Every structure is written in C-alpha cells, then in structure tokens.
C-alpha cells in the first residue's frame, strides 16, 4: 500500500485569503481545520483547497478577521463544484465564520454511505485505503490549529485531507452509477446547505424526521 508522503504535494501557505488568479477547472477539494467540533465555540483556523493537480493551497486565519473575498467568491461560485469529506461540518463552519453559503457541493462521505453498504467504515482514511490503495496518517488530527506557526507535520496532514478527494469522487461516481444511486446522492448534496443551517440553529443532535 502506498504512503501519502510519496505523493509529494506542492503546499502553498497563504494568510487571510487565496491569492488572485487561482483557477480550479476540475472543481476544488476543500477541508477545514478548527479548534474543535463546536462551530459556535471553536473558531475556523485553516481552509485547505486543491484542484486535484497535486497543488494544495492552505489559507490560515488568525482569528481577528475573516474577510477573504477571493475565497468567499470561490465558495459561492455556481460553476465550481466543491468536493468535501463530511461536508456538513465544513460548510457550517464556513458559513459561521465567512458568512457564505457554499454551493454546489459533493460529499465523499455521503457517497460512500450510499454505495459502500458492506461496511460501516466511511472515514477518509478508510476510503483512501480501499479505493486508492493510499495509507493516510492521522497523527495530527488532534492538533493546535490556532498556533501562530504551524509545523511541517501539520501542513502535510492538512494537505492530505484534500489531496485525494478528486480521485475518490471519480471512484465513488462509478459506484453510484453502477448501483443506480446517483440521483439519491445529488438530492442529499443539495440538502446539505439546509442541514448545516439547522446545525448552526441548534438542531445538530435532533432528528427532525423522527416520530
């Protein structure tokens, strides 16, 4: 099995926003790093983006400003598909701190749950191992992303979370088509913006569809 380190991505760190002129013609893979899992308490520290071309752009936020006009424009650009793993959390955080609704969305975790019904393991590490033969390191998963300076290990970990999403999407799309569940996936992706708003409104733990 290949190691994630063997991919040798080109990592570019930016402060506060993306640089001008970036294009993502194949869609953009996105992830976020926060100080915890409560968007109301735990601030957005980092946004990772990749166009599926082995380049990863990391946007670091220092907590005092979230202007980021170029990143915001990309997130709401209707012509650029945004690929996430567990989009529900990331788009809620992005809406909370950047005041922007992300669309259109693709979520590899939802796609996995719709077609990999033979397992209950739908983490990014599991998907990369099975579908791509790539072993990801999760050593920096619990880490201080609010630190003034991020370590090389943190940067590499953050990059690995978006580096393979385009390839995973391609594999999952084949499986969705094979099982006749593409329409279900698209409907679920379309609902994610509302699901994130419900989370931010205090309904994260409540199943509003239950009896």
The helix fraction, in percent, is 25-40%
Question: What is the CATH first-level class name?
Answer: Alpha Beta
Number of helices: 7
Count the domains: 1
Low-confidence stretches: 1-5
Strand order of the main beta sheet, please? 2-5-4-3-6-7
Total number of beta strands? 8
Which sequence of SSEs, written as H and E, runs from N to C? EEEEEHEHEHHEHHH
What would the average pLDDT be, to the nearest integer?
Answer: 94
Largest sheet: 6 strands, mixed
SSE layout:
Layout: E1 2-3, E2 10-15, E3 28-34, E4 44-50, E5 55-60, H1 69-75, E6 82-84, H2 87-98, E7 105-107, H3 108-115, H4 124-132, E8 134-135, H5 152-163, H6 165-178, H7 182-203
Could you characterize what this model shows?
It is a single chain. The protein is of the alpha/beta class and 211 residues long. The chain has one domain (2-203): Ribonuclease H-like superfamily/Ribonuclease H (Nucleotidyltransferase, domain 5, 2-Layer Sandwich), CATH 3.30.420. Helices cover 40% and strands 17% of the residues. The protein has helices spanning 69-75, 87-98, 108-115, 124-132, 152-163, 165-178, 182-203, and strands at 2-3, 10-15, 28-34, 44-50, 55-60, 82-84, 105-107, 134-135. Strands 2-5-4-3-6-7 form a six-stranded mixed sheet, with helices on both faces. It has a two-stranded parallel sheet with strand order 1-8. Strand 4 (44-50) and strand 5 (55-60) form a beta hairpin. The protein is globular and about 45 Å long. Mean pLDDT is 94; it is low at 1-5.
């Amino acid at each position: 099995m290949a190691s994630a380190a063997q991919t040798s991505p080109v990592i570019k760190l930016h402060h506060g926003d993306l640089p001008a002129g970036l294009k993502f013609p194949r869609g953009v893979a996105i992830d976020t790093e926060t100080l915890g899992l409560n968007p109301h308490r735990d601030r957005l520290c980092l946004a990772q983006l990749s166009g599926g071309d082995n380049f990863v752009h990391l946007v670091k936020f220092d907590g005092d400003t979230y202007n980021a006009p170029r990143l915001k424009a990309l997130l709401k650009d209707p012509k650029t598909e945004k690929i996430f793993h567990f989009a529900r959390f990331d788009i809620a955080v992005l809406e909370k701190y950047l005041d922007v609704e992300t669309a259109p969305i693709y979520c590899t975790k939802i796609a996995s749950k719709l077609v990999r019904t033979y397992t209950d393991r739908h983490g990014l590490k599991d998907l990369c191992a099975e579908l791509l033969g790539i072993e990801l390191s999760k050593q920096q998963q619990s880490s201080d992303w609010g630190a003034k300076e991020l370590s090389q290990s943190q940067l590499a970990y953050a990059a690995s979370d978006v580096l393979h999403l385009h390839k995973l999407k391609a594999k999952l799309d084949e499986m969705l088509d094979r099982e006749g569940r593409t329409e279900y996936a698209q409907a679920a992706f379309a609902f994610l913006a509302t699901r994130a708003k419900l989370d931010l409104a205090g309904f994260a733990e409540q199943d509003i569809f239950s009896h």
